[in-house]
Amino acid sequence: MKVYDGSQTESAAQSTPERIKVGIAEYKVTTEPALLTTSGLGSCIGIAIHDPHSMVAGLVHVMLPSAADIDGGNSAKFADTGVEALIEAMEDAGASTDTMEAKIAGGSDMLDFSESGSSIGSRNAAKVRETLEEFGVPVVGEDLGGDHGRSVKLEADTGNLVVKSANTESKTL
Amino acid sequence: MNVDIQSLGTFNQLAHEGAEQATQSMGQMTGIDAVVDVTKITLLDRADVGEELVGRDFVGVQFSFDGVLEGDTVLAFDVDSAGTITEEMMPGSGDDEAMARSGIEEIGNIMMSGFIDGWADYVGATIDHSPPKYIEESGSDVLPDAPENGDHQQVFVFKSEIEWIDESVNFYIYMLPEYESLTEMMVEHVDTDGDAIPIDKLQTFNEMTTSGTQQAADNVEMMTGIPTAAEVTQISFAPIEDVPKQIGTDTFVGTVVEFTGTPSGYLMVLFDEVSAINVAEAMMPIEMDSEELTEQHKAAIEELGNIMTSGFVDGWANVLQTSVEHTPPRVVHDMGRAIMDPLAAQVGQHQEHAFIIDSEMRTDDIEFQAEIHALPNEKELRAALDDLDVERATETSADVEQIFK
Fold first, then answer.
1. CATH of the domain at A110
2. What is the pTM of this model?
3. Which residue, A17, A124, B26, B403, has most beta carbons within 10 Å?
4. What's the pLDDT tens digit per position in A57-104?
């Protein structure tokens, strides 16, 4: 589990918020007023969860719908196991699913060449919703689908999720 | 000589963990929070090693190592970041050249010992390394000379890119093992026979890709009148989740196709925005002189992407003697990583690691650079390599034009 308590960067945290980068198939959790960022979401989805009660926030960048479809690999790569891993890590850091809220972005249909069936982007989105529902975590904001890429920034103190695209204005969920 | 996908994956993982360990050591010494961004194994022509470093100044430390694995490794920092790192370690040392230098040496020593020890642990044998040698060089000169081997024009390079989170500063760990000692070690660590890759044929495949890229470059020249040359061609191997990171977060314009046959996969032709505008205008009958990318530019890029793709794919198909078809190009204009992301995801439904084939072309006349990236289905690439007639490939390098006509 990757929990940032900010102990190594106390001086920096007071001036500008610490920036925590979340790579593809990674998740990070923080209890500090940090900025959690991930970039280059195409069909991938960024799931940002914020618990205003305990002030714990986390972000996971998942790539594929379900761990059941492929052998091995790390849990954060998949929508189902990735959401689960993030929620558990947040609980360990003091958050509760009773007060967690989720915002999700990504799941674009860009460059989907499959002629039949639904795109990876929409399957990712469906699996993310399903898993969040299982844990009783409501989705309070979303920016999904379309045919463009996205980068996101989660403000850990407010729970605001800023979504940026290459060709459009950024929006805040 | 065959190596299996599993052992390529394991070796990639080793290099990645070594880089992580090295980065942690640095974090403990300096308090600097850095992460290993990408680790990949690349096979490329020795002359092209370090091409991506051109135009920047580096300081760092070099080691040579021998034992079950022989070769050289280097840790290279951007000049600016080196100053900041030593300043973090020993405040006030940033301006003192001798202290800065000894700081880099110390950090390099600790980081790289961890890196080499990780490999030795895995193979259960000793790998000795020389004392660190401090270096200050420009561009690819920061790297040790690629090991010489009369039989092999190409070398394997393990490259990790480490990103320092609070600053937009990167540094690098390169490892250049001797071809023979590396492949012997890979062969020894083959776990199964089922998914073996004929390693020597990968080199042949690279040579063919260079020819295919040249064909694509010739097509660009034909359509635009701009003399264009194929530059670097390489084949890399990385975990699927690292594939999108092979492309930057900048915005690119280009085309993507799915190709089917043996192998199948995806192929991207990408231009940075300035190059896209320049090359598109070179194709237009009237002067545009536009700063912005218009629909006319995109239409020209679509046409160009199509003909470049055909040149490239036909090159493969001719030598592999297979039929490779491709879909009409789809025009993309987005951040590079987001373009690669859905393609990696589609390939990633069936495999954990991927081969990525990259080539570049450039011209001196105007600011223009194009990248071609192919993401083949791993099993099919393996099958195609298995069937590759090396005799025919040898003929190819002697008379490329006949094959890639």
1. 3.30.1330.200
2. 0.83
3. A124
4. 999 999 999 887 666 668 899 999 999 999 999 999 999 999 999 999
From chain A, pick out residues whose CB is under 8 angstroms from the CB of B258: 113
Chain B residue numbers touching A121 (CB-CB < 8 A): 342
Structure tokens at B152: 């092999």
- What are the structural domain ranges in chain B? 2-188, 196-403
Burial (CB < 10 A; 0-12, 13-18, 19+), residue B394, is exposed
Tens of pLDDT, residue by residue over B24-45, are: 777 777 777 777 877 888 888 8
Nearest to B197 by CA among B365, B312, B400, B354: B354
What is the rounded end-to-end Cα distance, in angstroms, of chain B? Answer: 31
Taking only the tens place, the pLDDT of each residue in B190-209 is 665 566 777 777 777 777 78
Domain that holds residue A131: 3-172
pLDDT(A37) > 90 = yes
Cross-chain Cβ contact B352/A20 below 8 Å: no
Cβ of A42 within 8 Å of Cβ of B340? The answer is yes
Of the residues A11, A18, A24, A115, the best mutation for testing chain B's interface (the one with the most B CB atoms within 10 Å of its CB) is: A24
Residues 6+ apart with CB under 8 A from B391: none
Answer yes or no: CATH 3.40.50.620 is held by domain B196-403: no
Contacts of B334 in chain A (CB under 8 A): 42, 110, 148-149, 166-167
Q: Smallest Cα–Cα separation from B148: which of B261, B46, B288, B278? A: B46
**Angstroms from A59 CA to nearest CA on chain B:** 16
Nearest to A149 among B31, B335, B348 (CB): B335
Number of domains in chain A: 1
ipTM, interface predicted TM-score of the complex: 0.85
CA distance B341 to chain A (A): 5
Give the E-state strand segments of B240-307 in sequence order. Answer: 251-261, 265-272
Contacts of A18 in chain B (CB under 8 A): 166
